[in-house]
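Tutorial, part two.
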Amino acid sequence: MSDEKRKDRRHSREEKIFIEVLAASSDTASDNLMLECSTRDISKNGLKIHARFPFIQGSILELLLNFESGGYKFLLTGEVKWVENISDEDYLAGFELVDAEHSDYMVWQKMFAEAS
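Running the prediction step on this input gives:
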């Protein structure tokens, strides 16, 4: 697993996250899905996410992160860097955040700069 590759300090945080899958990778899967997952930890440039389904490494996906504790919402874009099957229907995935148009990437970055 590639946890050690992350350069930024991780913050353990379990929050609800919705991941939008615009186009499925196979003919039998549905397009335009909104998947509910949860974060395990967050950092300035990445997220570790717990899901009930595997993501495809290298996929670029839209992430809607809802911090219920503070009322903050972020629309982010992330690339799946790794996926680990932890049980029959449970997966962990590492996402690297990318600066994309119409995302809250800069606000997210600023939040971590202020926390230092």
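The mean pLDDT is 83. In part three we will examine how such features are distributed along the chain.
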